[in-house]
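Q: My labmate handed me this sequence with no annotations at all. I'd like to see what the chain might look like in three dimensions before we decide whether it's worth expressing. Could you predict it?
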Amino acid sequence: MPARKSLAFLNCSVANTLDIIGDRWTVLILRDLFMGVRRFEDFHDDLGIARNILSDRLDRLVRAGVVETRRYQEHPARDEYVLTENGKDLVDVLLALWRWGDRWAPAPGMEPRHLVHLDCGHVTHAVPSCAHCGGELRRSNLRIEPALPVVTERAGLSV
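A: Here is what I predict for the chain of 159 residues:
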């Protein structure tokens, strides 16, 4: 398999994140980790993913510090996979994908899973909010600074 091209040249945290988690199998492995899957065979059984691809994606997540291994059996040696602190921070990404998928790409014939907020016991969904005021974040009330050069050039603004 050819080596993946790094997106580091874009100088962008989104691109850097995609270098780590930017394929469908990796995102599904992360979903399974958040739902409690820990062992190689369980990922394989749940996802139906080829063993070499599963091994590659798990190794990449370990190298990136998103997942760590913990030995659960000595003979033969077997490890389980657990999210690190930075891996746990990806919950926001998964919650956003989950919410979008439930709305725009639901699984046909399946009742969607529900998120239950343990603090209040209610079914909920993720809503991105401002860390300063708590207001809901929407595309219509956000500006990203600095803008991409291609955007400022198109608008005739100085970079």
